[in-house]
Write a structure and sequence with these properties.
Blueprint (H helix, E strand, L loop, with lengths): L1 H9 L8 H10 L3 H6 L6 H6 L5 E4 L6 E5 L5 E8 L6 H26 L5 H7 L6
Antiparallel strand pairs: 1-2, 2-3
Length: about 130
């Protein structure tokens, strides 16, 4: 139990997952990403940790996370890829969280700069929903 509590202390969003889910996730180790990319493992735990994410896109070679997808079908390319290779799950999840924050920040500033250059409908559809 000490290991799970330490992992949760490093990445508090893990408190949303049961002990059994954490054991399955951390039991897979760094190979978890490979099994997700190859379709052998379901990444549904990401949805439990990040409410707006339905799925992830990975780079074909590096396995870095390149984009996030919502249930509504919106795809948001990350401003910076989230590195996953050879990292423990809590480390790459924390990296993903940082990349998501950076992406929203960049999108908000860029969307604000483009405001008024086109119709509201075109402007809103050009930017991630959270930035609008």
């Amino acid at each position: 139990m000490g290991l799970l509590e330490r992992k949760r202390g490093k990445f508090p969003r893990l408190f949303f997952l049961s002990n059994e889910e954490l054991i399955d996730i951390f039991g897979a180790g760094p190979e978890l990403v490979e099994s997700i990319v190859e379709g052998e493992t379901n990444a549904s735990f990401v949805t439990s940790l990040f409410e707006g994410i339905d799925s992830l896109s990975f780079h074909d070679v590096t396995w870095a996370i390149t984009a996030i997808h919502s249930r509504e079908g919106e795809k948001v390319m990350l401003a910076k890829e989230a590195v996953t290779r050879n990292l423990q799950v809590d480390s790459w999840l924390k990296g993903l969280e940082g990349c998501m924050k950076q992406t929203v920040q960049d999108s908000v500033f860029r969307a604000f700069g483009e405001m008024g250059t086109s119709s509201v409908e075109d402007w809103a559809s050009a930017w991630p929903g959270q930035a609008c």
